[in-house]
Amino acid sequence: MLQKPLARCVCAWNSPHFSLSRERNALLVSFSLSGAILCFSTKSLNPKKLSLSARRATTREVSTANQDKETSPLLGTMDTLVRYITGKSRATEVAHAVWQHIVQRGDTAIDATCGNGFDTLALLKMVSDESRNGCVLGLDVQQSALDSTSSLLNQSVDPIQKEQVKLFLMCHSRMQDVVPKGKSIRLIAFNLGYLPRGDKTVTTVPETTFQALQSATEILDSGGLISIIAYVGHPGGREEWEAVQALISTLPTCTWVCSKFEVLNRPKSPILALLFKK
Ligand code: SAH
Fold first, then answer.
1. Counting atoms of ligand 1 from 1, which one is nearest the CA of 205?
2. How far, in Å, from the CA of 195 to the mean position of ligand 1?
3. Which of these three, 24, 45, 71, is where a domain ends?
4. Domain assignment of residue 77, yes or no
């Protein structure tokens, strides 16, 4: 019933949902408020005969509208942003929600710091497609991190989907070496610092992070995003963030839009930087 949306808009308050769609030869307007879904349909597509009739949504319409809500990235992002602002979601969740607006099935993305593989998995779900063009290139300097990523993928996706991820034991400052010829890169994710539950002495460091970011800005396709989560609570973390910021400040405004999310009254909270290439 709601399969051919002509237009859809989302109210930016909690979960009200409004949609306009075509139903045979009439227009169907449905919206949900506090869980109830109401439909209004016009008698005809002819503007001269527009008159509205209202009825309760059928069970199928309720289920389709709820599916739309689950698959609409904008609704998800809005919720995640509000939960971040109210202290209920983390910077990584905000990052994943934004990625969904940039990455499409069939794209190539890079996870520059695989760690335990949560970002690799999130990216794989966004790029994987039936024709298997989509690809995630995952890098880490620790074999234990790549093993951990690999086992998360084994638990979460089928072996065919897993083939769309290529893991490399190497420093992200050489990320350009692993990009297949002719592939454009839609998203590059950095989750800096040390491997959670791993060796805390192995951390990303300003010099190689700086070089990696420089490469990232060059290989990223136009319309793509570099996503950086920096941790400032461990030794060297603040200096690393300052190196990252120094590089960001050199990016020309004609090509780049750079934003930052930070919880101001928690000085050690992670910082999310999003660099969009126009
Ligand atoms: N994204 C991960 C967390 C990353 S933790 C997750 O979702 O779980 C940071 C990771 O960066 C660690 O695994 C560490 O080994 C890796 N790392 C440190 N220096 C690196 C470098 N120069 N190149 C690539 N990875 C590096």
1. 19
2. 6
3. 71
4. no
Q: Provide the domain count of the chain.
A: 2
Statement to judge: residues 159 and 263 lie in one domain = yes
- Which neighbouring-strand residues pair with 194? 203
From the CB of 113, is ligand 1 less than 6 Å away? yes
* Residue owning the nearest CA to atom 25 of ligand 1: 140
Residue count of the chain, please give it.
278
Q: Is the CB of 172 under 6 A from ligand 1?
A: yes
Report pLDDT digits (tens) over 245-272: 999 999 999 999 999 999 999 999 999 9
Angle, vertex CA 37, rays to CA 31 and CA 42, nearest 5: 60
22 and 104 assigned to the same domain: no
Inform me whether the pLDDT recorded for 203 exceeds 50.
yes
CATH code, domain with 142: 3.40.50.150
How is residue 162 annotated by DSSP?
Answer: H
Q: Where are the alpha helices (DSSP H) in 56-117?
A: 59-71, 73-85, 91-102
H or E segment to which residue 217 belongs: helix 206-219
Whole-model pTM over 0.90: no
Structural contact between residues 2 and 65, judged by C-beta atoms closer than 8 angstroms = yes
CA 157 to chain centre: 18
- Mark whether 67 and 147 lie in a shared domain: no
Look up the domain containing 231 and give its range: 89-277
Asked if the structure places residue 45 within a domain, the reply is yes
Cβ proximity of 160 and 124 under 8 Å: no
